[in-house]
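Help needed: design a sequence for this.
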């Protein structure tokens, strides 16, 4: 591999051999650089035909998981890796708010918003119910339900601290969502010419049923600009609902802990306040009262994705393939059934 990420990994590997000479700060910095390097590899891999369909987040998780199985967890770099997994994750969610144009949703998407509420409720509740029927692992099933109902990887990343989900479940959930969402978006694109519906109907269907914004864009673009615009509007409504959902989950977790006489303290998700502020800033200031160059407007989404990808590396290093085989199959089946039923129902309510 000749990518910058691979070269950085080589430098870090040499440094690890002399780790006794490194200070704690040096090891911490090495851990952060490690996650950034693997994220760069994930981005490079996502440009390869075939891998370009699942995106950099899933590619980076696969690269990190492969590293873990081949070389083990780089214990000396744990402090920096955990920093990336937790702090980068929250910062990326805050930046993700810039993608949400609240003004557009409230002025043009209120009708879609009610359908989005139904989709989110159905996606989460049915996935959880199927998980119980299949006796699937509860934490991973819950994460997949949220990812299916709301907005994929970003939703999983946002709710995992609230639900106290472990890093392995979060990483597995993100990988599954990326893969399944990509498959569904490709199927949508193949089916579109044979469906007796308008471009607008197809766009709404895509926006209220597909998993991530990238999946909605992938499926909606072939139907034209109008279809893509309405698809993204429908999807943004689901992103907006992520905030109230997180607070509902906080209340639910608190009551659950109280019922179990648990003393577990729920950390307030301050990054959601940042998400809201960034949404307001992006909707009413950036590009309006505060003009911004085009390179900045284009670069922010890429930066957000890269930071989130770096965080995913830290989570992916905690994935064990042995656990993956035993833990992920039943939650995956529950999510697939929910996604198929949701797709059919949303086709008729679009």
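Sure. Designed sequence:
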């Amino acid at each position: 591999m000749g990518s910058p990420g691979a070269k950085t990994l080589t430098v870090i590997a040499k440094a690890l051999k002399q780790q006794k000479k490194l200070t704690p700060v040096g090891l911490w910095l090495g851990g952060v650089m490690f996650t950034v390097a693997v994220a760069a590899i994930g981005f490079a891999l996502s440009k390869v035909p075939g891998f370009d369909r699942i995106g950099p987040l899933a590619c980076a998780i696969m690269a990190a998981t492969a590293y873990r199985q081949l070389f083990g967890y780089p214990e000396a770099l744990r402090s920096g890796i955990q920093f990336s997994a937790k702090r980068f994750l929250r910062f990326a969610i805050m930046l993700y708010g810039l993608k949400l144009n609240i003004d557009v949703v409230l002025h043009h998407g209120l009708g879609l918003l009610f359908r989005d509420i139904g989709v989110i409720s159905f996606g989460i509740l049915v996935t959880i119910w199927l998980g119980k029927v299949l006796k699937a692992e509860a934490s991973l099933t819950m994460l997949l339900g949220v990812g299916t109902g709301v907005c994929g990887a970003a939703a999983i990343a946002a709710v995992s601290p609230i639900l106290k989900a472990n890093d392995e479940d979060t990483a597995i959930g993100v990988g599954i969502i990326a893969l399944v969402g990509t498959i569904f978006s490709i199927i949508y694109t193949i089916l579109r010419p044979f469906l007796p519906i308008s471009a607008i109907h197809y766009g709404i269907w895509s926006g209220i049923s597909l998993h991530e914004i990238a999946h909605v864009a992938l499926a909606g673009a072939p139907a034209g600009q109008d279809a893509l615009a309405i698809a993204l509007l429908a999807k943004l409504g689901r992103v907006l609902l992520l905030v109230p959902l997180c607070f509902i989950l906080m209340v639910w977790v608190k009551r659950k802990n109280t019922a179990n006489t648990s003393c577990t303290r729920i950390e307030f998700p301050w990054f959601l306040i940042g998400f809201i502020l960034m949404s307001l800033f992006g909707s009413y200031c950036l590009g309006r009262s505060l003009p911004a160059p085009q390179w900045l407007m284009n670069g922010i989404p890429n930066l957000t994705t890269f930071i989130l990808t770096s965080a995913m590396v830290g989570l992916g290093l905690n994935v064990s393939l042995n656990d993956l085989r035993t833990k992920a199959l039943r939650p995956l089946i529950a999510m697939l059934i929910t996604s198929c039923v949701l797709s059919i129902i949303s086709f008729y309510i679009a």
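The mean pLDDT is 83.
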